[in-house]
Amino acid sequence: MDPRLLFIWTVAVLAGSLCGQEVFKNNGIESDNFANNWRCRQCVLEQSPIKHTGKFSGKVTQRRHDYSGPTQSISLTKGAFYEITSYVKLLNDKPGEVHTRISATLHVRYSDGTQEWKKVAVGSYMRSTDGWKEVGGSFRAPEKDFKLAEITFSDPDPSVSFLLDSASLKQIPELTGNWKINALQRIEQIRKADLSIDLSVGDEYVLNDIEVEVTQIRSEFAMGGTVRADAIVAASERKFHKFVEETFEWTTIANALKWRMMQRNQYPINSERPKLAIEELLSLGKKIRGHNVVWGVEQFIPTWVKTLSKEEIKGALDTRIKGVINTFKGNLSHWDVNNEIIAGHGDWFEQKTGDRYITEKMFQQIHALDPNVKLFHNEYRVINDGSITNAYVDMIKEYQAKGLPLSGIGVQGHLKVGPPDILKIQQNLDKLALTGLPIWITELDIEASDVAKRADYYEDVMTYLFSYPGVEGIILWSWHDNGGKNAKAGANLADGLGDKFKLNAAGERVKQLMTKTWKTNQVLQPISRSSTLRLRGFKGDYTITVKYNGSSVAQKKITLGQSGATVNLQIGTKTTASAVLTCVTRWSKYSEIGDDKRVTASCKDGEIMTGCSSKSVNDQETKDGEKFSWDTGIKQRVCQAINGFGSTAPVQAIAQCCKGPSDLQCTYLSSRVSKNGDGEQTAAVCPTGYLPTGCASRSAFSSSAGVLSKVDSRSCVAENDDLKNPKYGVYSHAACCKASGLHCVSKSSVRSDSFVGNKTAVACDNGYAATGCNAYNEFGGIAGAYISNPYCIAVNGRKRDSPNQGVIAVITCCRL
């Protein structure tokens, strides 16, 4: 049985069985004697035969204020955890309001004379025609000494009367045993599966020199964090970029996709800012959550929308949905549709349009526009509070009953100062799990001024969440110093901007969990020529590589799922498997700024250079290009990048370095200079039997239009761009390689957009390795190209005044 389904069944069986003695007196209002139990604060309470259970309910009328309602003084144990439930039914509606809701508020008077009011249960949105609705939640009693505690059911407009029945308040026992040991045991059980590798080794291999490298390249469980759109594309934020690249598999763009950020005014619509970030994240192989289509809390509505009429609001909403969904269709894995509709009183669109089902219609419209993106609600005050969880579950069940395209449950998870309350987290997750929908923790942050404690708290909470079968993903609200005016220093994972960016103890702990503790990467040694190697690994995607004296001789990619996996690998005389080509990208350091300043990138021992490209750090076109060169000092082939006249930033050289069979060899050729003039071309042609695995181009005055890989003619063709200086030509360079069975193809991307820094990307088909990457544009203005596995990414370096003049990425793909 699927562990998640088994867990849901267990939760359902145990639900309600752990509660203690009833705290409310006359909780069903079956007695009309309200002495020492219920009283009505500036209202009238009487019995009614219209009931939820039993024979009677309490009828609440003649309310003078929104806080008027039935109240009961209660006896609470300091620091204890409580569950409150009740059922209410509206007797009338306020004219002009599409719906309302009822809440339970805890009022505490402390021994030091101070007072506190806190909502402990927030009901669903309702109308009088909806019948009985639950108002429930959970809370922990204060730790401070108090002399009075009472709960009041209230909140609607004073004109609204209602019925109250089946009220219950019970203490929940604390967790027994060691919750963390239990969590670690669950992780071993539900997050891992068995992997078997059946390996046969031929006699021509020395057995002691064989090792099997098991590398997890992606996790089944989603782990990620938020990024700021500007930071992920900024050249000055290289360290932050590296942290994101190395740590997260999923990302959420924190603000740039929000309606208010994209349209502070009705026009223009700022799609470019999130688009650049999305392109960069996709080039890094990240999956992206879209946050959010709308945010129905009044303070987060674009100011210009608030001035519109009812019908104009509907029109603006329709335009927003069509615009943002179609713009980013196919690029995002999730969308948060209407953020904080319950916890944040996010029903602005319902109230202003008079349509209480308008958010449901948003789900339907978005699903029709993009059926592949998964749609979520996203709420706070759930695992950190518990007051809205029951109402959230009620709304989710309504969506399910109506067949609406709700794919998962978004739970923010902004935890306040102090040790995490694991019982509170568990109780609220248990309620959500009963819906059967996957739970995503979408905005986890934890406050603690002591960074060492903060690290411990993050580990505790993430461990529990990772162990919970109903949770499918954790996205950190990854604060650091660029968090902006609302940054929470007490939740930071890192300190410093730019080159000063550095993970603190909490950030290091989080990275360790995401990239090491909850990933399986092992090297296994066979003990015989026919061996079965076994391990238990975290579920996800893997590369299994057999190495001989450190060089790859066989490789397979597999997915380890719930049922486990068995891999068969043979090398040597018994094998029919083909050799594999494996490649890595190696970047140089930065060049100096200025004309003809050079920098080189080289491959490591055992690697062969198959490609060479370069990139301006500031995404401008002021570079002369790149070439394959020979460094006499280190006696090694290098990829050399050359900076250009007028440059204001460094360039980097990018070498593509591959390993393959022993007969893989390459030679490097250069063409003659092209003629002067726009569009003039020159070709470096590989000898018969060799294929161009990578191309490069350079000019004397940043005047290259790039280079095309022409595998069919065994050539690399560079083109001149005379807009910069028609007095100079361009050179083409080729890496010409051969090996038994080597087959190569080239592929081109669509054009980039027209602004400086816009990117376009193309990837190899399955089974091929990327051996070279370049940019081409007959209109010139190339900032560079590079491989970010599996994509070849070309960068536009010039603003275009005419459409369809962006750069094209050209990738060379080879296999054996």
From TrEMBL:
It comes from Lingula anatina. GO terms for molecular function: endo-1,4-beta-xylanase activity. This is Uncharacterized protein LOC106167223. Keywords: Carbohydrate metabolism, Glycosidase, Hydrolase, Polysaccharide degradation, Repeat, Signal. Residues 211-513 form the GH10 domain. The active site is at E443 (nucleophile). One of its GO terms (biological process) is polysaccharide catabolic process. Residues 1-20 form the signal peptide. Belongs to the glycosyl hydrolase 10 (cellulase F) family. InterPro entries: CenC_carb-bd, Galactose-bd-like_sf, GH, GH10, GH10_AS, GH10_dom, PCSK9_C1, PCSK9_C3. It comes from the Eukaryota.
